[in-house]
Amino acid sequence: MAKKDTSGLMSSAGIMRYFEAEESAIKIDPLFVIAGAVAFGALIWGLNVYFSMA
């Protein structure tokens, strides 16, 4: 009896699911993330300075 080789199908199914999930993901520009982190840090620093003077 011949053996059935299904390893190719199983491995490609995982890759296809990964790429399908990648297409539906939200894409955010890295510059936006860095700018948001810097703005949030500046806000926290500014609030710290403001409330330490009181």
Structure in a nutshell:
With 54 residues, the protein is mainly alpha-helical. Helices cover 76% and strands 0% of the residues. The chain crosses the membrane at residues 31-51.
Structure description:
The longest helix has 24 residues, at 30-53. By secondary structure, the chain is mainly α. It has one domain (7-53). It has helices at 7-23, 30-53. It contains 2 helices and no strands. It starts with 6 loop residues before the first helix and ends with a helix.
Q: What value does the average pLDDT take?
A: 77
* Integer-rounded radius of gyration: 25 Å
What is the first-to-last residue Cα distance?
A: 85 Å
Percent in helix: over 70%
Q: What ranges have pLDDT less than 50 throughout 5 or more consecutive residues? A: none
The helix/strand order is HH
Beta fraction:
under 5%
Biggest sheet overview: none
Features:
mainly alpha, translocation, rod-shaped, 54 residues
Reconstruct the topology from this structure.
Blueprint: H1 7-23, H2 30-53
Transmembrane segments: 31-51
Family: Belongs to the SEC61-beta family.
Membrane topology: Single-pass membrane protein
